């Protein structure tokens, strides 16, 4: 998955590459660790604005305390966490519930 993100945006800056890889890696790690897996779609867009759109979806039990996670008061020992993905993104949206979680983010290139 990270390799696909790398190929999609080979011409962008080092900062953009780190943001893209970090966000995709963290979402994949979260899906495996907390939901037993899921899917991630990468959609490059060239016009009107160059960006990479990432959509991650799983069928886990949802994130029980999403507000706390996104506020930064929930501390973890590994990874960027969902807040880290939000900070890396130019646009970020998360929907969660008892039937799963969907995270969408964009990185402008």
How do you describe this structure in short?
This protein has 109 residues and is α+β, with helices and mostly antiparallel strands. 39% of the residues lie in helices and 28% in strands. The protein starts with a helix and ends with a strand.
Write a concise keyword list for the protein shown above.
109 residues, alpha+beta, 4-stranded antiparallel β-sheet, 4 helices
What does this structure look like?
This protein is of the alpha+beta class and 109 residues long. Helices cover 39% and strands 28% of the residues. The chain has four helices and four strands; from the N terminus they run ααββααββ. It has helices at 2-8, 14-35, 66-71, 81-88; strands at 39-45, 51-58, 91-97, 100-108. A four-stranded antiparallel sheet has the order 1-2-4-3, with helices on one face. Strand 3 (91-97) and strand 4 form a beta hairpin. The radius of gyration is 13 Å and the shape is globular. The chain starts with a helix and ends with a strand. The mean pLDDT is 85.
Query: Which ranges are low-confidence, i.e. pLDDT below 50, for 5 or more consecutive residues?
Result: none
Q: How are the strands of the biggest sheet laid out side by side?
A: 1-2-4-3
Which word captures the global form? globular
Elements, N to C (H/E): HHEEHHEE
The span between the termini is 18 Å
The biggest sheet amounts to: 4 strands, antiparallel
Helix proportion of residues, in percent? 25-40%
Q: Mean of residue pLDDT?
A: 85
Number of strands: 4
Q: What structural class is derived from the secondary structure elements?
A: alpha+beta
Rg from alpha-carbon coordinates? 13 Å
Count of alpha/pi helices = 4
Strand content: 25-35%
What is the subunit arrangement here?
Answer: single chain
């Amino acid at each position: 998955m990270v390799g696909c993100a790398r190929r999609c945006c080979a011409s962008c800056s080092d900062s953009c590459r780190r943001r893209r890889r970090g966000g995709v890696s963290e979402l994949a790690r979260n899906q495996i660790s907390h939901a037993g897996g899921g899917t991630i779609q990468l959609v490059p867009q060239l016009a009107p604005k160059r960006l990479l759109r990432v959509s991650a979806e799983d069928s886990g039990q949802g994130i029980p305390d999403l507000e706390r996670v996104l506020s930064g008061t929930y501390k973890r020992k590994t990874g960027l966490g969902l807040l880290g993905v939000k900070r890396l993104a130019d646009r970020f949206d998360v929907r969660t519930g008892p039937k799963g979680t969907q995270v969408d983010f964009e990185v402008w290139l």
